[in-house]
Amino acid sequence: MTKTVLVTGAAGGIGRSLCEEFSSEGYRVVATDVMKADIGDVFVQADLLRFCEDTDYRKNILETISKHFSDFGLHALINNAALQKLGSAEELTYGDWQETFQVNVFAPFLLTQSFLPELCLAQGSVINISSIHEQLTKSRFAAYASSKAALGGMTRALALELGNKVRINTICPAATGTEMLKAGFDGD
């Protein structure tokens, strides 16, 4: 039986590493990202912001992804994609907050909810990639840090609710040498 994993944000530094590691362990890797990439066994280009806002687009993406699951379901969902909008309290807009929460919190929930039957079938696992910013942050990260704290809270609530059906955990990496991290230090 080949196990299947879905990794969002697969084109980024952490996402690419996750895809490579799961592949080396024999998983069938279904990878998604807003940017087209040559990664995973199957790649589905998906804009998670649009996924949250457009129900027809969401339905199409979910159908496209689910075609690649085996008869045994989905063994792991890795919600890795993230949006990092930086700015001071005076600079951050409502749109910045809305987009950040849609990609970093709402999309992981919608994906978990949508693929719950497949995850239950496989007695699978959801891993939400959060950030050290969930608890320790710095100036100009209010929207990003708040979204990661919300992701952690959502994970804990879902873990209680889904505990006997699907394992759900959060990983909070500290500084990792990705393009997103480097952008956070731009000009600093």
General description of the model:
- With 188 residues, the protein is an alpha/beta fold.
- Helix content is 45%, strand content 15%.
- It has 7 helices and 6 strands; from the N terminus they run E-H-E-E-H-H-E-H-H-E-H-E-H.
- The protein has helices at residues 13-24, 48-53, 55-66, 94-114, 116-121, 142-162, 179-184; strands spanning 4-7, 28-33, 42-45, 76-79, 125-129, 167-171.
- The protein has a 6-stranded parallel sheet with strand order 3-2-1-4-5-6, with helices on both faces.
- Helix 6 links the parallel strand 5 and strand 6.
- The longest helix is centred in the middle third of the chain and has 21 residues, at 94-114.
- It is globular and about 50 Å long.
- The protein starts with a strand and ends with a helix.
Chart the SSEs and their pairings:
Layout: E1 4-7, H1 13-24, E2 28-33, E3 42-45, H2 48-53, H3 55-66, E4 76-79, H4 94-114, H5 116-121, E5 125-129, H6 142-162, E6 167-171, H7 179-184
Parallel strand pairs: 1-2, 1-4, 2-3, 4-5, 5-6
